[in-house]
Amino acid sequence: MADQELTWSGTFARWDRRLFDAVARRHWPGADRVLPRLGRAANHGVLWGGAAAAIAVFGSNGARKAAVRGVASLALASATINTVGKWSVRRPRPLLEGVPLTRQLATQPQTTSFPSGHSASAFAFATGVALASPGWGAVLAPVAASVAFSRVYTGVHYPSDVLVGASLGVAAGFVVRRLARDAQEARVVPGDERTAAGAPALPDGAGLTVVVNTGSGTAAAGGLDILRTRLPAAEVIECEGPELSATLAKAASRATVLGVCGGDGTLNAAATAALRAGVPLAVFPGGTLNHFAMDFGLAGAEATCEAVAQGQAVRVGVGRFSPGPGGEPGYFLNNFSIGAYPELLGHRLRWAPRIGGGPAALLAAWRVLRSQRPVRLRLAGRPRSVWLLFAGNGTYHGTGPTPRRRDHLGEGLLDLRLVHGGGRPGPRLLAAAFTGPLSRSPIHVATRLRSLRIGDIPAGTPLAYDGEYADAPTDLVLDELPDALTVYRPR
Predict the structure, then answer these.
(1) Which residues lie closer than 8 Å to 451 by C-beta, 6 or more apart?
(2) Quick one: residue 41, left, alpha or beta (phi over 0 = left, psi -120 to 50 = alpha)?
(3) Among 286, 323, 370, 413, which one is least packed by beta carbons within 10 Å?
(4) To which H or E segment does residue 421 belong?
């Protein structure tokens, strides 16, 4: 048996060397200028760090998450290769006989040959990005393959070193995706909302109409497959853009339960339609961020299907902003704001179609911090000047003017945060970010209340709610509607 293993090992080594020699002998037009430089650029992960920075600047929110996944995958692969792989198989580097001098590196690596760390890092980064953003992954895949091939081309690795390193890199990408999913599911913990008695159980989905925003993001497709399998009798309507609100209102008027698949902005429109029609809401997370679903305790479509089939639902509070007499009220499930954030959001929405989401966000932040003026208005009858007014539907945790997480949505209170005017917006907002929650200072106020009257709002002042953008009326009332909406969630 040992003799057979030695024979197989020797045969494999000969084939590996023959393939290495074949690459060395072959003339590759133009490669002498490109591949050695590309391999050097990938030293210490510099190439991939630059790629991650570029994606963060020019990509969308989803692309930035993909870049983070790529960097995490690279770190995992690099740590595994350098602490376990290199020292487990002490294979010497190939002899450079036959490799043209123009291809050879000026400084030869001193570590062992198996497996290729450059190949592992390249494929780990590309896989981590591709699993979260296939478009960016398609851009990176040929670059990663070229870096891996350059290690054979320059004579520092055998082909098997590269293949095993690339395989380990791909595996690292999948491991990081699994860890990210586990972390997300661990964070999704149901709160203390009141049980909704009498929520209809729809075992096969009959009576459920689900409106899908096809423009929300890539997460919707998998959720729809689960929905069609678990609740085959449910009606599914796909639409996007200007048709969405009208479609949701029409669906709510004739459905027993209104379902929605999309992000927070889509969910806001669905909640408004469900409130006005008096029907329960089933949420199938399908957007980029899904803040409401995360805080509410919905890990995905499977949980929603289970709750709808068994009639398990709770009642949640809803924030409302009501203009003067005759105006139609608006609602928010996450938060409402006036000041710096709506201004930033407006600039980003205006510029993103022309220059992309990342550059638009940076340009919008620069514009707001450079030229924004505080908003002068009346709060509860008193004149105030504010850089930012933030109202959350339920108490958010964390410091700063716009914290991120809630434990539950049944509290029935607004979480109000104010950043007072005066000075420049940048230092004020930064100082507020280090101020504790529920605090009062010359810069930042945080408190909880059921309602707030806001008056004398200057014409043209923007407001934002659940990521949507609109012009504020002259006067409005913010208030909380406790237990206003029935939403399905498993116990």
Answers:
(1) 414, 477, 478, 479, 480
(2) alpha
(3) 370
(4) none
- C-alpha 289/C-alpha 62 separation (Å) is 8
* 201 burial via Cβ count (<10 Å: 0-12, 13-18, 19+): middle
Query: Comparing 78 with 205, which gets the higher pLDDT?
Result: 205
Which residue do the tokens 């938060």 mark?
335
Helices (H), 81-199: 86-88, 117-132, 134-153, 159-187
> Strand 382-393 to strand 335-339: parallel, antiparallel, or no bridges (unpaired)?
antiparallel
pLDDT in tens, 250-294: 999 999 999 999 888 899 999 999 999 999 999 998 776 678 888
pLDDT at site 230:
92
- pTM score, whole prediction: 0.59
- Residue 378 CB burial class (10 angstroms; 0-12, 13-18, ≥19): middle
In this structure, the strands spanning 313-323 and 281-285 are: unpaired
- Torsion angles phi and psi, residue 410, rounded to 5: -110, 15
The average confidence (pLDDT) of the chain is 81
* Nearest partner of 390 among 418, 414, 425, judged by Cα: 418
Q: Provide the sign of the torsion angle of the four alpha carbons 47, 43, 71, 347, taken in this order.
A: negative
